[in-house]
Design brief:
97 residues; 3 helices; 36% helix; mainly alpha; two-stranded antiparallel sheet; 2 strands; disordered C terminus
Length: 97
């Protein structure tokens, strides 16, 4: 997506939440080192209910590798069928790995 101008300045609350998210992301990926789709190394957090109100809600996090994260965003109908968009995601137990 191409932007038409400079980004709006971030509010203090937005900047604070973004910092909290990056710390949470690091901790979450440490606990979930494998992609929930292909079991490769996870590097991204997908927010199944969007980032807005759910930015810091770990119940909506899905650990993904970059290719799988792109697949989710490039195929929204498929991702919705898989429960990766629009609902709290199914969490695999450690026994399933």
């Amino acid at each position: 997506m191409k932007r038409g101008g400079p980004l709006k300045p971030r509010s203090k609350k937005g900047a604070s939440n973004e910092g909290k998210f990056h710390r949470l992301k690091k901790r979450y990926l440490g606990k979930h080192p494998h992609c929930d789709m292909c079991l490769g190394p996870s590097v991204d957090i997908h927010h199944s209910l969007g980032r807005g109100a759910y930015l810091l809600d770990e119940a909506t996090f899905v650990a993904l590798c970059r290719p799988c994260h792109h697949k989710v965003h490039n195929n929204p109908a498929w991702a919705k069928q898989q429960g990766l968009i629009g609902e709290k995601p199914y969490k695999r137990s450690q026994e399933e790995f």
